Automatic annotation (TrEMBL), chains A, B:
<dbReference type="GO" id="GO:0016705">
    <property type="term" value="F:oxidoreductase activity, acting on paired donors, with incorporation or reduction of molecular oxygen"/>
</dbReference>
<dbReference type="GO" id="GO:0004497">
    <property type="term" value="F:monooxygenase activity"/>
</dbReference>
<feature type="binding site">
    <location>
        <position position="218"/>
    </location>
    <ligand>
        <name>FMN</name>
    </ligand>
</feature>
<feature type="domain" description="Luciferase-like">
    <location>
        <begin position="23"/>
        <end position="380"/>
    </location>
</feature>
<dbReference type="InterPro" id="IPR016215">
    <property type="entry name" value="NTA_MOA"/>
</dbReference>
<keyword id="KW-0503">Monooxygenase</keyword>
<keyword id="KW-0560">Oxidoreductase</keyword>
<dbReference type="InterPro" id="IPR036661">
    <property type="entry name" value="Luciferase-like_sf"/>
</dbReference>
<keyword id="KW-0288">FMN</keyword>
<feature type="binding site">
    <location>
        <position position="57"/>
    </location>
    <ligand>
        <name>FMN</name>
    </ligand>
</feature>
<comment type="similarity">
    <text>Belongs to the NtaA/SnaA/DszA monooxygenase family.</text>
</comment>
<dbReference type="InterPro" id="IPR051260">
    <property type="entry name" value="Diverse_substr_monoxygenases"/>
</dbReference>
<dbReference type="Pfam" id="PF00296">
    <property type="entry name" value="Bac_luciferase"/>
</dbReference>
<protein>
    <submittedName>
        <fullName>FMN-dependent oxidoreductase, nitrilotriacetate monooxygenase family</fullName>
    </submittedName>
</protein>
<keyword id="KW-0285">Flavoprotein</keyword>
<feature type="binding site">
    <location>
        <position position="147"/>
    </location>
    <ligand>
        <name>FMN</name>
    </ligand>
</feature>
<feature type="binding site">
    <location>
        <position position="143"/>
    </location>
    <ligand>
        <name>FMN</name>
    </ligand>
</feature>
Length: 443, 443
């Protein structure tokens, strides 16, 4: 059973979350397009008992993008490939609701879910990067509109996922009856943004529907997460903040008629561990030294509508930016501005801080193990998504040193007990939207 | 080497091309969603030396759809899964240019191509089924407009596939240089239907770009095929017709400045073979007997805008339909009307004929082997796509009886010699659109 245990997922993001992770000797420099490396990592994660791998995404790059964003596998194709090499680990991937069609996306995730035996998860993003509009020839919707679109979109997709009841496909060779038309349902959606008739041309999987991941941090994002998400990622790096966030999301879920167990909180952490705290800090510095200041400034610009920070003095206080960044990664840009003001940071400090996040999980093996347990026990996390700064060393250390300690203390099983992601995460199978209605009528 | 040899592909379409193939004892009834069955068939096809598997697609179903269309895997996810289970066979799939975004589709095929080591092919369809519009909330473009959209679409996609030159990713850990900005290119497309800046966020594969498949049969379709397609499917069932078609397409290719070797003709055939012609005909009748007349009429309606044929007398001449069917599967509906008139067929005969195609490839092992060689030698085909009526028996017989005969006569190698689809089909690697320009400038 998975109750009382901590779930982990790991992000597959090439050489790592650090912008210059590809320079680190512990990973292949081409990790983001190295299929053997991705297969190996997914298999190791499964063998260690991690609940899922997760592939983030983006739809616009330019010269200033961080290197592994320039050249990487597309999530659905990568996850389908990994599905064939694994049998129990969940397969989560990002697709934007602002730049896709609900019929197509409902189908591709349903297909991944079915061919993996019930292991798919869809991470819903609304796409903050304005440049994306240039690759799709349509105006970039603003923050509020993006969430309005996303809400209608997910409603359509979940409707399509209910197109067929479990026992709709009779396949009686004697009578020639292939399916029961009463168990086929059309979503017949006519909304503000989408018109979709249905039905979807694929059945449900052993876990009913793909799991819904989401990572909204703004108020609209949290509202969306409370209503729809089943696993919520957060970048909050302090335990009190994470606890408040978790309570906020879960209270919201209850207000939407959901149960506390219907939504799991997964802070993203990037542990760097060593035999001593000093050894861990030394590893941290080695990673931070992979970056030069020009790259750091360009990367910072990404959160501020690609603002050119090279124009400022590096060692003067972080510049006043006014409204720049308001319509992009709003929660991140607000945080950066606020921290810079509160701590009186220079531009150089802000830029380097953003390239190499320090956070709460750098320390000795026992310190980090304790920290993880503390977050879990205090309700700041149901599990964690590992967004390793450097995938090689980061996951090597974590699997060798931290997971065994957590297992020893009864907080983790280095073994997946179930074949579907929902079961491994302790999430219920969603009822079929239309079958449920029939039951109510029959009662 | 593959010259002078016949290439084969096989369609993965569940239990088979026959509408009631799921009732045949030689295949699982749920073949279209049975992943183990699909893996097994792809592996067997690879072991036998077939050049590719191919997944057709559709984006709209209703109660009258043929059974395996109701519930099937989505092509890109299925092919990515199969990529992991195979190492040499090509992986072709259908995606519509009328109901998708070029940036997304360019990426997904490039990703499949890269993770499979250079084995992807994109079958371009413009989507004849009008009902599709109901699942995508936009008007269904008419025949001419669909091809106009498709031409601009493929131009954008091929531009995106040239985003990165082969040696663009330097990944020099010492200097910190990840890529050479001079070898990154933007398509910067501003057209009638699409606006796409680029670059694409994934590199080229070992075969350069995915192979372009196409199956247009109308004049606009043939024009499109001549200009862009590298492997062209045709449903023509007589050798003279196929020969004329091949000449027509290849002449067109030359007129577009391409070489005769740049486009390969693949008639779709569904051989049914036996020790004698009688045994083959008996197998044919067993398949035809799987269908009842109500299903046959509903299926026929699919080619005529879902026209209700149940209103007519079954044993009277095929009804006058006027313009019905003009905007859907035009070439098929025209053929059906013409054949009915020429041969004086009743509605019952037309309907049954359409459920179970007879064609030129039913006969004894030697007859069918000879027929295949004749088509190839006379220039009616560079290869064939096997669209088996019943995948189980059909491919069992073909691989056991026909392929060894073809091999014995020097027309086929039961072994793939190369790791990329282009090499196995004898197609050149396309030049990078932008790198080529630089060479001209430098010359």
């Amino acid at each position: 059973m998975t109750h009382n245990k901590i779930n982990f997922g790991i992000m597959l993001h090439g050489a790592g979350g650090h912008m210059n992770s590809w320079r680190h000797p512990s990973v292949p420099a081409d990790a983001s397009v190295n299929i053997a490396y991705n297969v190996d990592l997914a298999k190791r994660a499964e063998a260690e008992g991690l609940a899922f791998v997760f592939v983030a995404d983006g739809l616009y790059i330019n010269e200033k993008s961080i290197p592994h964003f320039l050249n990487r596998f597309e999530p659905l194709t990568l996850l389908s490939f990994l599905a064939a090499h694994t049998s129990k680990i969940g397969l989560g991937g990002t697709v934007s609701t602002s730049y896709s069609d609900p019929f197509t996306v409902a189908r591709q995730f349903a297909s991944l879910d079915l061919l993996s035996g019930g292991r798919a998860a869809w991470n819903i993003v609304t796409t903050p990067l304005e440049g994306t509009a240039k690759n799709y020839g349509r105006p970039h919707p603003d923050h509020t509109l993006r969430y309005e679109i996303a809400s209608e979109y997910i409603d359509v997709v979940k409707g399509l996922w209910s197109s067929w009841e479990e026992d709709a496909f009779v396949r009686n060779r004697e009578t020639g009856q292939f399916f029961d038309p009463k168990k086929m349902h059309r979503v017949n959606h006519h909304g503000k943004f989408f018109t979709v008739e249905g039905p979807l041309n694929i059945q449900r999987s052993p876990q009913g529907e793909p799991v819904i991941f989401q990572a909204g941090a703004s108020e609209s994002g949290i509202h969306f997460a409370s209503k729809y998400a089943e696993a919520v990622f957060t970048h909050i790096q302090d335990i009190e903040g994470a606890k408040n966030y978790a309570k906020h999301v879960k209270d919201g879920a209850v207000a939407h008629g959901r149960s506390l167990n219907d939504v799991k909180i997964f802070p993203g952490i990037n542990p760097i561990v060593g035999r001593t705290k000093d050894e861990a800090e030394e590893k941290f510095r080695a990673i931070r030294n992979l970056v030069n200041i020009e790259d750091a400034l360009a990367y910072l610009g990404r959160y501020f509508d690609h603002h050119d920070f090279a124009q400022y003095d590096l060692d003067k206080p972080f510049p006043e930016l006014g409204d720049i960044g308001k319509n992009s990664f709003r929660s991140t840009s607000d945080r950066i501005k606020q921290e810079a003001k509160e701590k009186g940071l220079t531009l150089r400090e802000v830029a380097l801080n953003e390239t190499t996040q320090h956070g709460d999980f750098i320390g000795s093996y026992d310190e980090v193990t304790n920290r993880i347990i503390e977050w879990f026990d205090k309700g700041a996390a149901d599990g964690f998504i590992l967004t390793m700064q450097v995938s090689g060393q980061g996951f090597d250390d974590f699997s060798t040193e931290i997971l065994p300690r957590l297992e020893e203390r009864g907080y983790f099983d280095r073994k997946l007990h179930h074949n579907t992601l929902r079961e491994n995460l302790g999430l219920a199978i969603p009822s079929n939207r239309y079958a449920e209605k029939q039951q109510i009528v029959a009662a």
